[in-house]
Design goal:
234 residues, alpha/beta, two-stranded antiparallel ribbon, 9 strands, binds ligand JA5
């Protein structure tokens, strides 16, 4: 097993897509282990309460620390080697391909999915006493919870693990990897050569590999200039 992933959430079904396709095969092969846990399993009241009003006032509700403490103790018992705890949150550090590569080197990732206005801050503080806690943002937009972010992070990480992705090569020529100097990829084409009156750029049919490389680099540069000028500063 190259990677173990556990997710604690109040919407376990939201993580079902992780069992599909490529990742599903890596799960069947035992290359990746995936555990999805319902936070409500660690509630003690008849209503299975996971949230309450925020101290200091303000809108919405905050997730109670006690169910989270019991969940962390059950999923990552203190006497065992600890996972890296990933908490998706808009207040986290930006998720980038470099961060994905960093996480792909970890043997065990534990994801805590917030809902409502988030998780009582003491949960991350307490967990930090025994595991690395990594609060991660996917970008500057608001979701209703961490589950969608977990799907994105797990896919980005698992596909970097040799053998999980069908064809390893395509991982090396992705956008944002060094192979294309951190530029956006050039547009891609396949058959037919003419489709609804639209032709494939001639150079790609020429067989001149040096010209094709040059054309793709020019397309990467003008696409990056237009859409992601920030990538040109680095
Ligand atoms: C209670 O909401 C969350 O736990 C939550 C997690 C994330 C991740 C986002 C994108 O960076 S927005 C967001 N909300």
């Amino acid at each position: 097993q190259d990677l173990a992933v556990d997710v604690i959430t109040i919407f376990p079904n939201y993580l079902a897509p992780l069992r599909e396709s490529l990742l599903g095969k890596a799960l069947e092969r035992g290359q990746v282990r995936l555990g999805v846990h319902d936070l409500r399993a660690w509630t003690t009241d008849v209503h299975r309460t996971v949230d309450d009003t925020p101290y200091g006032g303000g809108p919405g509700m905050v997730m109670l620390p006690e169910p989270w403490g019991r969940a962390l103790d059950a999923v990552a018992p203190a006497e065992r080697a600890q996972p890296r705890l990933i908490i998706p949150t808009p207040t986290g550090r930006p998720f980038t391909q470099a961060v994905a590569a960093q996480l792909a080197a970890e043997p065990w990732l534990l994801f805590a999915c917030g809902r409502y206005e988030g998780i009582d801050a003491r949960v991350a503080e307490y967990a930090g006493g025994r595991m690395v806690v990594d609060e991660i943002s996917l970008g500057d937009y608001v979701l209703c919870g961490g589950e969608v972010a977990v799907l994105a992070i797990v896919e980005a990480v698992a596909r970097l693990i040799p053998g999980v992705l069908g064809n390893a090569l395509s991982a090396s020529e992705d956008s944002f990897t060094a192979a294309v100097d951190g530029l956006l990829e050039a547009p891609a084409y396949t058959k037919p050569a003419l489709w609804r009156g639209l032709a494939v750029p001639e150079v790609l049919l020429s067989g001149h590999h040096a010209r094709i490389r040059q054309w793709r680099r020019e397309r990467s540069l003008d696409r990056t200039r237009k859409r992601r000028p920030d990538l040109l500063d680095s």
